[in-house]
């Protein structure tokens, strides 16, 4: 109840201003001091994918709930963020070279679209691709069916636990994203078409 009231309050604050921004060739994201991540192309995910998720974002003593609608095909990644009641807050579109975000100005500025895409890719993309995309002096990934840990200089930087709820923790920056999948569809890449099936 409290989180819903918070979103309603935020919505009233943001309703007056919208923005659209295009980030050209913004492909490298700083994960921590001396650690960077190169955003990956949509096709590198290896399949077409559509999902609706309930996300809980926790930072310091704040907690917010929102819905994610994520679509990945060979050409684009599209991530839409909505309030639990269905009001659109932002849309992020990436083709691997550019990142475009539009929505309520304060929300777009706060979420930092490139960083949200990086978190999503670190959690969902194949391990070998993430291993190659992280740039640091000493980096490794511990991975099994239930978890993925990004290690830098033998210390954990990001922990991801996979179960009924995916939990993503950035240990240095102190935030956590918990994601519950509500629905999903996936299929192989076929001639660039988005061939859906259950």
Based on the model shown, name its key terms:
198 residues; alpha+beta; outer membrane lipoprotein receptor (LolB), chain A; 11-stranded antiparallel β-sheet; 3-stranded antiparallel β-sheet; 14 strands
What does this structure look like?
The chain has 198 residues and is an alpha+beta fold. It has one domain (2-11, 18-186): Clam (outer membrane lipoprotein receptor (LolB), chain A). The chain has four helices and 14 strands. It has an eleven-stranded antiparallel sheet with strand order 1-8-7-6-5-4-14-13-12-11-10. The radius of gyration is 17 Å and the shape is globular. The two termini are 33 Å apart.
Short structural description:
The chain is an alpha+beta fold and 198 residues long. 20% of the residues lie in helices and 49% in strands.
| Strands side by side in the biggest sheet | 1-8-7-6-5-4-14-13-12-11-10
Average pLDDT value?
85
Shape field: globular
Contiguous low-pLDDT stretches (5 residues minimum) are: 11-16, 192-198
